[in-house]
């Protein structure tokens, strides 16, 4: 398969044609069929590439990913990026500017539609790069013709993976250059984070990720599988960053609650890996409801943890509500 994180290249540009589409919906939708791999921490496949899988697995996982990004990972990113070349301020500015609207019926509708469009783009690309893809089967002679020892569809896998990563890197570089030109004379809008604090954030994320990564490799029957290393490493890195974002939120009580909540999340990660290992091969009909229910419970847990406001945000919200009340009835005496 093409590298999962290269798939957005084939979905995100569609927003140029229809600006009302959700950027996060297109991006996440283009990766939904592969999301169950990262839940299981290995290339474990059930129904993720079918329309039933989109509804039962892709939608809850995408909503959880969107909530985790908006409320936990996006605020954390400027705190982790280096101050060199003002990368931390670039991230803070761009993340503040490019946010999809908060949940409203209209925004939810566009998000779900964008998810489905991104999902279809994933199937389109997979159809040209999978052994049993629809285009590979339709044009079998063409796609199985060997070039330099590999069939054409395999070369397309490598090409699309490389193009997706290069296009993303080039876009980021160009956007960063535009931001540098526009902000050259502007005063810093965000307080600097000390280098030691940044290092502490990365250390915390790495430690939390390692708690998930090490047992997976130790307990898996095929620890020398390079695809397993790649998928498990990505899952562990994302979990580590999410955990660090929760633990670094302002407010001592919130940090304690986050630390307590991460214990069952870690246990859930181990359970996902065990389920994938025990089920193995083609999933039996009796196993599928268990897997779907597990994915829903995990998604709900991530949404609930992400949506808890930080101490600073809660205080700001309370202050804003108090000011609005005073503006209507006069200041309290």
UniProtKB/TrEMBL annotation:
Q: Which UniProt keywords apply?
A: Membrane, Transmembrane, Transmembrane helix
Respond yes or no to whether keyword Transmembrane helix is given for this record: yes
Name the source's superkingdom: Bacteria
Keyword presence, Transmembrane helix: yes
Q: Which residues form a coiled coil?
A: none
In Pfam terms, one family for this protein is DUF4184
List the transmembrane segments: 53-77, 107-125, 155-174, 195-215, 227-248, 257-276, 288-308
- Cite the InterPro entries for this sequence: DUF4184
The identity of this protein, by name, is: Conserved membrane-spanning protein
